[in-house]
Each structure stands twice: as structure tokens, then as C-alpha cells.
Input
Amino acid sequence: MFDVTGSAIEAALARIRPHVRRTPAWESPALSERFGRRVSVKLECLQLGGSFKARGVAAKLMEMDAAQRARGVVAVSGGNHAIAVARGAAAFGVDALVLMPRVTARFNIEETERHGATVELVDTAAEAFAKAEDLAAAGRTNLHAYDDPVIIAGNGTVGLEFIEDVPDLTHIFVSIGGGGFSTGVAAAIKARRPQVQVVGVETEGAETMTSALAAGHPVTIRPTSIARTLGAPFVTERTLAGARALLERVDLVPDREAVADLLWLLQAEKVLCEPAASCTVSALARCAASLPADAHVGVVLCGSNIALADVDALKAQFGL
Output
């Protein structure tokens, strides 16, 4: 059973408000024209640290007592969660160790270290999660990126803000990594407007939730998508339950389309997003014509942690 409630997300928003940015949401003329439906965007790519992850980390650190903070925290991440943990821990005076896969983009490693966290590179995600558990048993608090109800509630505040700012949304597209963000956002939205349809989005090669839904239980995958911040090796029983209960469906899009829409958003909306964010636009592109003519679609742009050199490399890779 999914155990993150709308009231928990409301409480999280009240707590973290001084520590995060209320990111803008607006109706996009460019997207509305492109898809023939009203489309609004939630620009979480403008959040402190470049992604929604700042919210969940703030919620968790604020809950910890002085003794827990003194023992430090550990986290497993190759992307946005790592950066958020580093920033948040520095702000609260907490020692942070982040375990990152060796294939992590140099930009993310440098950003994590720049904010004061110690980075340890490991060979596999399984090794990283196992080591995090050992360190937690020894005293550090494990800030799990997507299976901690406090962190899920904090990250779900994105959905609460979106539905407050654009109350007539009928559909919302949100990215899935390990499932904590999408289910938290969906829980917030459904608590306010149960009739809104929430669609999860994954890229091909990062189908953790798609695979789990098909199997009926969490399964471990080896992510191959270029959307590295969606590359969780598995979802959990908690997030799988949330997806079953709260998501209309999960859509898959190819990497190439996510990169093409990254470039389109940069040109049309003047915002830089990573592929893990732009993939929501790609998913909408595949189904917009089938939506009701009076639909008002929300698209969550969840992060912007990508180096300009990596954008150039992706353009070359896909011939865009």
C-alpha cells in the first residue's frame, strides 16, 4: 500500500517553504500551439540545485534531530539527488557521503563535490545501495532517493504547487526514475482533484516502472538510457503500489525524442532541461491528438542538470 498522503504533502510544503524555491508555472503558447491543446508547464528545472530533489532532501533534513545530523548522511545517486543532498547537507551543517556509479556524468560529480559532499565512486548500483545500508547501520542516516515517505512527500509538493497555480488541469505528465517523484506528485494532485489523470513517463532503456508493472513486482534492470537521472535500477514495493493506485498509465519514449524535445524547449521556451525532463513533452507529443479538445495538460519539467558540452554530444549522437 502507498503510504504518502495528501495531508503529509501539505505539511511538508509548509515546512520546507523557507528552504526551496516556489518555481513558476504558466500556460505555454508554444506548446499549446504545437499540440492543439492548452498546455501549462511547471518549471521545476529552475529549482535550487537544478531539480525537484531539493524539496525531499530539505523535508528529511528538517525532520532529523541534532544527534542524527551529527552522525551525517549517506545517499546513493548519480544525478540530481546527489546534488540536492550535497546542497542541503551543507545548509544544515551535516556531513554527507554520496555513493555514485562510475559511469556518472562528470558534471554531476563536480556539482556534488562543489557543494561539499564526499563522493565515492562504485561499480554498480547494487553495490552502492548495499554499502549505504551498511553505513546506515553504523550510524549515518540513509537519504533514499525514492523510497522514504518523508522525501516522497517533500518532492510531491511540486504537484501541490502546480494544481494550486493551474487549478483547471485535466492531465499531468511527470517523469519516473525510481517512482517516488511521480507517485508523490500524483498523490498531491489526486488529494485536491481526484479526476486529474496523471501519466508517468520513462525513456526506453530506463523502464524500471514499466518492467515492474508487467512483472507484478519490482525487478532489477541495467539502465541504458541517456536520461541518466531516470536510471534507477529498480522501483520499490512502495512506489509500485503508488503507481498502481495513482497513475493512469506509464508511457515510454525513445531517447532520441527526449533529446529533440530538449532542444525544442531550449529554443521555444528558453529553458534548459535534461532529457529526464524533456521526455514528458515527448510523451505528450505521442498522444496529444487523442486527448479531449478541451483538455488542459500539465507538463512537469523536473530538472536541468546537464552540461552544455553534453547537450552538444547528444545532438551529435542523434544527428539533431
